[in-house]
């Protein structure tokens, strides 16, 4: 039970606070006086329950409601807003951790083949519309592409694609891969195409240009993609189901490339590989260009790779830290935690004060404190001055 | 004027914080106003401790841990005794948190 002295001080403090905030409550359009009174009432009630003031209401002279129980509920309410109806419901994982959004950037399947590499094609022109659309449905579109000699970055998502069946995808066997690859297209598509999921050629360009960037986290495999492009450009007339799939991938890659081209390039100018490719019908030239393109292509990818790698690296670090932590984390456990485990405010004896001076001589510490509140042995004690001598 | 939010951790401070939190979550009180109340509590509490309390206490014990960070001393004592002219209290473990008194007067 609180001493009368401390109780009196506390009551004085309460009244002082209430009177000083009364203006705020009333004048500035705040809540009324009634709210203020309610505040005071609840505050005093809690204090009485904690046993620190001898309220005029003699309900709890000997009763000390464990304050840990008190704070738990409001804190719990505050922190768990959804607990309204089912207070004791164990929050499910879904509740606690909202399902991760579809943010996993195109998780390059990379069956080790060029399919994955196709994603890394950095097209020189940024207008490359979202190739994502080509899940095989746009075969016709792709096939109908004008010759790849187009110089202007017109929106033609499928141009690169109608190609290189040979390189990238086998008809039957590769279809699975293609499907896998295409399966990712919707993801990329979601990223690229801000508006509708439907792929419309007309929309591609605009959307793509707005589409921004996809964090590319798969490795760069540009060669095949470049070749694919080349072949695609050559075989623009060539239509085929597999081509569409391949085309789709090419588009995606091109798209990614385009998007990646927006990434500030730090290692030199981007020679516009697309134009180079267009201008040189020869595959070998393409390959030569491709070599150049490697530099270009790789540029964005490494950025992404660099961006991506820290994550796993960090994870690795944490894994390593987990191994290290157990070595250190028990340092204080034995000494201190056993005492306070499961016990909170009541038994955590606490002194809150201001210090004037703290000195040490060898292992002897001395301090002078002032204006302190002590909570020890379930009692509140106030002091104006305190001196401490501790032996370390 | 800066205040020591230190005293909010006391019983009276925690009661006030809880009350305010309840009222804010009810929507009865705006968060800004709640913060103003807490700041006023800091001031009132500090002033009351200076003016209304006149007791002196002696603390002795084994210093288990000391920490000085951000101008705040934190001591953890074991086997501590608190003596005043009125009473003697012994505890097996106590934490002392002390802010620099000079900061308020600056």
From TrEMBL, chain A:
SMART domains per the UniProt record, alphabetical: TFIIA
UniProt superkingdom: Eukaryota
Ranges of compositional bias, category Polar residues: 125-138, 149-162
Compartment list: Nucleus
GO biological process: transcription initiation at RNA polymerase II promoter
Gene3D superfamilies tied to this protein: 1.10.287.100, Transcription factor IIA (TFIIA), beta-barrel domain
Database matches in Pfam families: TFIIA
Keyword line: Nucleus, Transcription
Any one cellular-component term (Gene Ontology): transcription factor TFIIA complex
CDD domains named among the record's database cross-references: TFIIA_alpha_beta_like (cd07976)
Acidic residues compositional bias, start-end: 318-340
Family statement: Belongs to the TFIIA subunit 1 family.
UniProt-recorded name of the protein: Transcription initiation factor IIA large subunit-like isoform X1
Organism (species): Durio zibethinus (Durian)
Gene this protein is translated from: LOC111303657
UniProtKB/TrEMBL annotation, chain B:
Domain Transcription initiation factor IIA gamma subunit C-terminal: 61-101
GO CC terms in record: transcription factor TFIIA complex
Subunit structure as annotated in this protein's UniProt entry: TFIIA is a heterodimer of the large unprocessed subunit 1 and a small subunit gamma. It was originally believed to be a heterotrimer of an alpha, a beta and a gamma subunit.
BP GO terms, sorted: transcription initiation at RNA polymerase II promoter
Pfam families: TFIIA_gamma_C, TFIIA_gamma_N
Chain's gene name: LOC111315513
Record function comment: TFIIA is a component of the transcription machinery of RNA polymerase II and plays an important role in transcriptional activation.
The keyword Disulfide bond belongs to this UniProt entry's keyword annotation: no
Gene3D superfamilies according to UniProt: Transcription factor IIA (TFIIA), beta-barrel domain, Transcription factor IIA gamma subunit, alpha-helical domain
Record's subcellular location: Nucleus
Protein name (Swiss-Prot/TrEMBL): Transcription initiation factor IIA subunit 2
Record's keyword annotation contains Transcription: yes
Keywords recorded for this protein, A-Z: Nucleus, Transcription, Transcription regulation
Domain Transcription initiation factor IIA gamma subunit N-terminal: 4-49
Entries under CDD domains matching the protein: TFIIA_gamma_C, TFIIA_gamma_N
The family this protein is said to belong to: Belongs to the TFIIA subunit 2 family.
């Amino acid at each position: 039970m609180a001493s009368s002295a401390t109780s009196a001080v506390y009551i004085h403090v309460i009244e002082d606070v209430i009177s000083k905030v009364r203006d705020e409550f009333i004048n500035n359009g705040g809540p009324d006086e009634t709210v203020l009174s309610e505040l005071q009432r609840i505050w005093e009630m809690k204090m009485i329950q904690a046993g620190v003031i001898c309220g005029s209401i003699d309900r709890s002279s000997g009763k000390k409601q464990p304050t840990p129980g008190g704070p738990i509920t409001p804190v719990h309410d505050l922190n768990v807003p959804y607990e309204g109806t089912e207070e004791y419901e164990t929050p499910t994982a879904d509740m606690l951790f909202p399902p991760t959004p579809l943010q996993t950037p195109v998780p390059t399947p990379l069956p080790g083949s060029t399919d994955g590499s196709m994603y890394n094609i950095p097209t020189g022109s940024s207008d490359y519309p979202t190739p994502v659309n080509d899940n095989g449905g746009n075969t016709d579109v792709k096939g109908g592409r004008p010759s790849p000699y187009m110089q202007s970055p017109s929106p033609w998502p499928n141009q690169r694609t109608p190609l290189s069946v040979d390189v990238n995808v086998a008809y039957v066997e590769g279809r699975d891969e293609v499907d896998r690859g295409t399966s990712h297209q919707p993801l990329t598509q979601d990223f690229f195409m801000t508006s509708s999921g439907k792929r419309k050629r007309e929309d591609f360009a605009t959307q793509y240009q707005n589409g921004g960037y996809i964090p590319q986290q798969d490795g760069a495999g540009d060669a095949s993609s470049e070749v694919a492009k080349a072949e695609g450009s050559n075989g623009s007339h060539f239509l085929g189901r597999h081509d569409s799939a391949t085309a789709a991938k090419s588009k995606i890659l091109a798209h990614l490339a385009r998007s990646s081209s927006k990434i500030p390039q730090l290692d030199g100018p981007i020679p516009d590989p697309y134009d180079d490719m267009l201008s040189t019908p020869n595959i070998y030239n393409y390959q030569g260009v491709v070599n150049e393109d490697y530099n270009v292509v790789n540029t964005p990818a490494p950025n992404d790779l660099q961006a991506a790698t820290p994550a796993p690296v960090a994870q690795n670090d944490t894994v390593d830290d987990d191994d290290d932590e157990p070595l250190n984390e028990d340092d204080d456990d034995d000494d201190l935690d056993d005492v306070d485990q499961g016990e909170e405010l009541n038994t955590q004896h606490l002194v809150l004060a201001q210090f004037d001076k703290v000195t040490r001589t060898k292992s002897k510490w001395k301090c002078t404190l002032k204006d302190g509140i002590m909570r020890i042995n379930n009692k509140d004690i106030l002091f104006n001055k305190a001196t401490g001598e501790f032996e370390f | 004027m800066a205040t020591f939010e230190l005293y909010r951790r006391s019983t009276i401070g925690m009661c006030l914080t809880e009350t305010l939190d309840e009222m804010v979550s009810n929507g009865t009180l705006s968060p800004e106003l709640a913060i103003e109340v807490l700041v006023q509590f800091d001031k009132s509490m500090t002033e009351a401790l200076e003016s209304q309390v006149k007791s002196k206490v002696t603390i002795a014990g084994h210093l288990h841990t000391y920490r000085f960070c951000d101008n705040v001393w934190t001591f953890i004592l074991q086997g501590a005794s608190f003596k005043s002219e009125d009473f003697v209290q012994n505890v097996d473990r106590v934490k002392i948190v002390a802010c620099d008194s000079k900061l308020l007067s600056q």
